[in-house]
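Subject: for your reference before the review

Hello V.,

The reviewers asked for a structural picture of the protein, and I figured it would be easier to keep everything in one thread rather than splitting it across files. Below is the amino acid sequence we used in the manuscript, unchanged from the supplementary table.
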Amino acid sequence: MLKELEDLVKLQKIDNQLMKITGLKGDLPQLVENLKQEVEEISATLEKEKDRQKEITLSIKDLEGKIEDDKLKLEKYQDQLYLVTSNKEYDALTAEIDHMKQEISKAEYEILELSEELEKLKESIKEREMLLTDKMKALEDKEKELKSTNEKTKEEEIRLKEERDELVKKVPLRYLREYERIAKARGGLAVVPVHQVFEVIRDKNGNIVEQIEMEVSCGGCHKIVPPQKFIEIKAGNKIFRCESCGRLIYWDDKESVVLKDEYHEDEEFI
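And here is what came back from the structure prediction:
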């Protein structure tokens, strides 16, 4: 087999193993990131709500203090009514009394509004704290699950990545770029073996008595490969591409022979 093609096949096999490791992790990394973001957002909202809760509590306390002061002033003005000696003094005092009553009424209304907001806020904080607890528990569980998976695959993943780094140094840049471009477009599969499909005839015991060649096709998209091209691919003296999917295709003594009763056209080679 051509050296460049041999290295590309090795590269694909390494990437296949790395994809399997990624597959073991599934969507756990993304789930962990999503949960972290949710925890941050809930925590930030909760902090704002608690700040507002403190602010309202202080405002109510201030208003209650103001009402106490205004009530004392009101009693003082009402007591002074019995001591006035002129209409002018009487009018001035009644004006102050009315003003105090308005101030007290206004403060009481503000307390009522703030108290309603405070009750809603307390309920919201309670619900959000419960939600935060649930999300943090879910995050902890998923982080443990991801950590466990990472620990199982860490050494193998490091070994494969190191092996890959060494291998890409050997692959000519133009082939490496083509490999990466195809892999990106074809779900990570840039290099696949051709499949020489045989119909199998078995005896009553299930033993193979005859194999009849049916077709040769791309191991990625299953597009038929013309006979002459197949002969050239099998020789392995140059790099060939599937005319349909564009993948690099090659012959492998073990992987390329496919028996009909073991072959499913809806499956892609991995």
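For the response letter, the relevant points are probably these. The first strand starts at residue 191 and ends at 202. The CA atoms of residues 69 and 104 lie 9 Å apart.

Happy to draft the paragraph if you're swamped.

O.
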